[in-house]
Write a structure and sequence with these properties.
The protein is mostly beta strands and about 425 residues long. About 10% of the residues lie in helices and about 35% in strands. It is built from six helices and 35 strands. The relative contact order is 0.16.
């Protein structure tokens, strides 16, 4: 096979990009994640630029890229725009090139390639996100303790104008995309450091203590010396052939994470659901996705109705309370007992590929304390004909280890870590490896 000189140069560029980018070679990487008490977003911090500047970012589980506000105070001696036809544009899978309508500056350069970053919290896309490279620093780990910070000299990210940060938590300058895309953090870090294309998310239920995201394989150790990667339950990740973000008509595969929920049980009893809603149709509608873009799980209206009715029937001896927005199903907490896994209420099972494989949601992840005397079922009515029938939101993910294996397209999940006598706040960030 004969390559033109252009493709030979491109291949060499990609090869040079993939090696020699860092110091030293870690086994895995970690990010601390805190829950913002005001927005309920999950926040991390990464150092970027030269000189290094700590940048707060909101976690976007299905996001395609790490995007940052470059319009307001971005200063770096190592910033480089990705030029049309470059290896960086090829990795980013973009072929949109353009020139600036103003004088070139950081985030707007001539002969640069652009993508379409999303802010899921205000359901907004920006179709002029410039692809760039800059230095990025992230902490290594042996799975038990934090290690040295490693520096990446050419990390691909996206520049956006300030308006796209609307709706993000105070002080946050962008989002950290963890989705199924080549320039999202998981794939990019795996390529740079030559470790497995796996990452694990463990969100803390506390706004005072940090959870953790691991990039790379386990062990994932939590105090007191518990490897929470053991005993995971596995289910296939499903590719939605259509984008499902703010503008789903982009006609590209979704970078978000879908799983195949087949049915739902409440207290072990199946509820009757229109099964068509649980499948992804030819337009990308339906199915079940996992998302940090929603603080609580969202159910299509008919699914919400049957699940909440069954839940109320199973708690017929518990006093009801008035609805508290955004929740419709609330109870007096005085008449609900407690258990190791939160309020003693019926478990909700998301049944997956067989009846023996299910994601069990216990009281700690199903019930939200809204006042001293009232708790509410932490699911939101998504109305009729939403793009996605079931969205598993942040509250239902807390204290549950989720391992995403991108190479094998599988999700490993633990259900509640409370039964293993630990939580996602128990990674030892204070002792160096």
């Amino acid at each position: 096979m004969v390559f033109t000189s252009y493709y030979l140069v491109l291949l060499l560029s990609i090869s040079s990009y993939c090696i020699g980018q860092t110091s030293p070679q870690p086994k895995a990487l970690i990010l601390p994640v805190t829950k913002d008490s005001s927005t309920l977003q999950y926040i991390t911090q990464i150092s970027q630029r030269t000189p290094l500047v700590p940048i707060k970012l909101t976690i976007h589980l299905g996001g395609q890229t790490l995007w940052v506000d470059c319009e307001n105070g971005y200063v770096s001696s190592t910033y480089r725009p990705a030029r049309c036809g470059s290896a960086q544009c090829t990795i980013a899978k973009v072929n949109t090139c353009g020139n600036c309508t103003t004088a070139p500056k950081i985030g707007c350069n001539n002969n640069a390639c652009y993508n379409t970053p999303e802010n899921p919290f205000i359901k907004t896309l920006y179709d002029g996100g410039e692809i760039n490279e800059d230095v990025l620093s992230i902490q290594s780990t042996d799975g038990s303790n934090p290690g040295e910070f490693v520096k990446i000299s050419s990390f691909i990210f996206t520049c956006v104008p300030t308006f796209l940060t609307e709706g993000l938590a105070s002080g946050v300058k962008g989002t950290a995309g963890l989705g199924r895309h080549q320039i999202a953090l998981p794939s990019q870090l795996a390529r740079i450091f030559s470790f497995p294309r796996k990452f694990a998310v463990c969100l803390s239920s506390s706004t005072q203590s940090s959870g953790v995201i691991f990039f790379g394989d386990g062990p994932y150790m939590m105090l007191p010396n518990i490897d929470v990667s053991k005993d995971l339950i596995f289910t296939p990740l499903i590719t939605n052939p259509f984008g499902t973000g703010s503008v789903p008509f982009l006609n590209e595969s979704s970078s978000e994470y879908f799983i195949g929920v087949k049915s739902i049980r409440v207290n072990g009893k199946p509820v009757t659901i229109n099964k068509k809603l649980l499948s992804i149709d030819k337009r990308g509608n339906g199915g079940t996705k996992i998302s940090t873009g929603s603080p609580y799980s969202i159910l299509e209206s008919s699914i919400y109705d049957v699940v909440t009715k069954a839940f109320i029937d199973e708690l017929s001896n518990v006093t009801r309370a008035a609805a508290v927005a955004p929740f419709e199903t609330c109870f007096s907490s005085k008449s609900v007992g407690s258990s190791r896994a939160g309020p003693a209420v019926p478990a909700i099972d998301l049944v997956l590929q067989t009846t023996r494989v299910y994601w069990r949601i216990f009281g700690a992840n199903s019930m939200v304390k809204v006042s001293q005397d009232v708790i509410c079922l932490g699911f939101v009515n998504g109305g009729l004909k939403p793009t996605t029938s079931i969205v598993i939101g942040g509250y239902q993910l807390e204290d549950n280890l989720l391992q995403f294996d991108l190479a094998r397209s599988t999700l490993g999940f633990s259900s509640s870590l409370l039964f293993r006598q630990t939580t996602c706040a128990n990674f030892n960030f204070t002792s160096k490896a």
